[in-house]
Structure formats: C-alpha cells, structure tokens
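Structure in, sequence out. Go:
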C-alpha cells in the first residue's frame, strides 16, 4: 500500500515549520496541523438519498455502475496529537462524471445530463483506529469550479466538527479555482491536496487516494472520545 499522504511525521514537520514562522510556543505543542475548514458550498444534498452507504458507485441493488474513474478513498480522522478519532461520521458529496450534483437546484435543470447511477453522497463511521473508506469516482471540474474536488463533513451526534473539501494534487485547474485560492497559507493548501494513484493490477483502471483529516477537539470532547 502507498505511503499515506500525510503521516504523523510529515504533519509534525509542517506543524513545526508553521509554528516557527509564527514564533508561537503554543503551536509547537501540536504535533499535527488541523485540516483547514472550507465552504460547504451550495450543493450539500437538499434531500438525503435512501442509499447513504460508503459505495457511491452503485445505488441499492442496481448493478449498473456509475460513470467515471473508480477511486478508492481511504484515510483516518485524527486529533492534533495524532490519536485516532473513532465513532465519528464522515460524509462526502461530489458531482457526478457529467458535472451534476445530487441537489434539486443542479439536477433538476440538468436531468438529461445527470448520471442516475451515481449516488453522489455517502457516509462512513470511523473505526476504532479512526479509519474511513469510500468507493467513489475521481472528481471532475465543472463550470465555475475548475478544481476537481470532494466535499466532506465530520460529525458527532449531528454536530458538525469540520466542513471542508480536498482537491486533486497537480491539477491545472487548482490555480484558477476561487475556493482553493481563498486558502492563502501555502501549508494549508498542502493539507487539502490529494494524490490519486493507479491501483496496481487493476483491470478497470481503478485509482486509490489517501486523505488524513485532522480535527481539533476540546478537552471534554477528547475525553469523551477516549471513553467510547
């Protein structure tokens, strides 16, 4: 398996770099940098679908897969000390391969264009090791957003802990994307970029991507997490 994009050593280095730049002793105490929050955007589903599992390629018992490059998205949710955050809900949503979101404001006027076989939204509860896993498609650009991206939320008991997005590392559209360019800090930009790499020996050209989500917990939340 490929080395994680942001293992604790790499994030620790970036954290120390950012802390030294700001000369703040408090920042040195944090081993990992928090994943920067970003806008939810206008297309979080206005009606949650019946199928909300972590496989966005197929819907229910339908055997016809969605269009697009199949991507296995895995990762962990961690706190700033590198400890896994278990039993939190990770949600993702994105447009289909034809650039249509699962939202009536987007799908209604583009009904003929929408890929009816793409779930568009999924959920996964983290394991004891903080792990999550999705099968989806590699994101694509669309008018107004030249940077392909996947939106995500981390929730506990219906409370949002983090809302953000990640983008495809090396995509030319990143430089022209307004949301990405709202992130001024170069280290924060690094923390939302993800590599999509070919799955070895895949006969259908599957991809794999690994993304670590680092959230800041209050002491009471951290204590609650350890007890669960």
């Amino acid at each position: 398996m490929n080395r994680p994009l942001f293992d604790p050593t790499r994030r620790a280095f970036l954290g120390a770099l950012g802390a030294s730049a700001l000369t703040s002793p408090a920042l040195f105490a944090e081993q990992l940098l928090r994943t920067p929050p970003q806008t939810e955007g206008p297309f979080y589903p206005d009606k949650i679908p019946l199928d909300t599992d972590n496989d966005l390629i197929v819907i229910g018992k339908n055997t016809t897969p969605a269009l697009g490059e199949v991507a296995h998205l895995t990762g962990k949710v961690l706190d700033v000390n590198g400890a896994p955050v278990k039993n939190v809900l990770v949600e993702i949503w994105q447009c289909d391969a034809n650039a249509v979101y699962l939202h009536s404001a987007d799908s209604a006027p583009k009904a003929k264009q929408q890929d009816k076989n793409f779930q568009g939204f999924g959920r996964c509860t983290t394991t004891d090791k903080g792990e999550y896993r999705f099968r989806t498609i590699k994101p694509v650009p669309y008018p107004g957003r030249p940077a392909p991206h996947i939106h995500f939320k981390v929730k506990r008991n219906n409370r949002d802990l983090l809302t953000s997005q990640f983008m495809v590392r090396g995509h030319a559209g990143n430089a022209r994307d307004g949301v990405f360019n709202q992130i001024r800090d170069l280290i924060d930009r690094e923390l939302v970029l993800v590599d999509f790499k070919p799955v070895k020996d895949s006969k259908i050209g599957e991809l794999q991507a690994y993304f670590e989500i680092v959230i800041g917990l209050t002491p009471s939340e951290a204590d609650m997490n350890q007890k669960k």
